[in-house]
């Protein structure tokens, strides 16, 4: 497959400016990017560097001040509500705070049923829907029977994160955007969740975009890394290349904050 054919999401000169005059913030400043099918990309940068703003533009949750985003090689048209809904079948997100991602008045089964309906399964027999929900829960090591009558706020942080992945399992978007998905959970569940996401990519060839402060995580999971500083991509490329042989001073500084990578690096180079 050629590069163009596998192009999933791309953009040139993408910019977001909040406010006007003295209150102006250039949150994302003329960034170029090309994400391909099945690629795992990490966007790494310090707090305030523009990561979430960039993610929100990709999702179409906020407008783009300048530049154009292409979805599967074509200009994205999400002006109408109908087109936006269609676009969101292709791109889904897991956010920093899972509590904000669910409607608090919807029980777990209706959260999952919504996903089946969104994928055109509204008319499927009840038993089939039950089977799909059970399968999605077991994919993330949750027991559907134990959750079915609960509201999302009755779940633990880790269970909620896993429920979000179960939703993605049912929705099967082309692109998954995960903004600090593992910040709420301990290191052990974190590894499990990352492995689930990687498994999902194996099964569906999903493109996964991770947004994180953690360059160690980027090294572990991604094919490609984009380093973001003050709204710009100061360095990008193959994860090994960028992290083991960083060129930009900013990348070097991010790496020096994570002694673990240096240890791995030493082991790899002995
Ligand atoms: N709605 C908004 N109105 C005005 N300024 C905003 C808005 N959203 C974000 N900003 C500003 O844009 C800049 C980038 O913010 P953003 O949330 O994208 O950073 P981030 O890299 O996601 O940070 P963190 O790692 O802390 O989540 C910041 O200076 C922030 O104050
Ligand atoms: Mg953020």
Q: Can you give a write-up of this model?
A:
This protein is of the alpha/beta class and 270 residues long. It has one domain: Rossmann fold (3-Layer(aba) Sandwich), CATH 3.40.50.300. It is built from 11 helices and 10 strands. The strands form 2 sheets. The protein has a 6-stranded mixed beta sheet with strand order 6-7-8-3-9-10, sandwiched between helices. Strands 2-1-4-5 form a 4-stranded antiparallel beta sheet, with helices on one face. Strand 7, helix 7 and strand 8 form a beta-alpha-beta unit. Helix 3 runs parallel beside helix 6, helix 4 crosses helix 6 and helix 6 packs parallel to helix 7. The protein is globular, with a radius of gyration of 19 Å. The C terminus is likely disordered.
Write the layout of secondary structure elements.
Elements: E1 7-18, E2 25-36, E3 40-44, H1 51-59, E4 66-71, E5 74-75, H2 81-90, E6 91-94, H3 108-118, H4 126-139, H5 144-147, H6 157-171, E7 175-179, H7 187-204, E8 207-212, H8 215-221, E9 224-229, E10 232-238, H9 239-244, H10 249-256, H11 259-269
Parallel strand pairs: 3-8, 3-9, 6-7, 7-8
Antiparallel strand pairs: 1-2, 1-4, 4-5, 9-10
Helix pairs in contact: 3-6, 4-6, 6-7
This protein binds adenosine-5'-triphosphate (ATP) and magnesium ion (MG).
Adenosine-5'-triphosphate (ATP) binds at residues 18-19, 25, 27, 45, 47-53, 213.
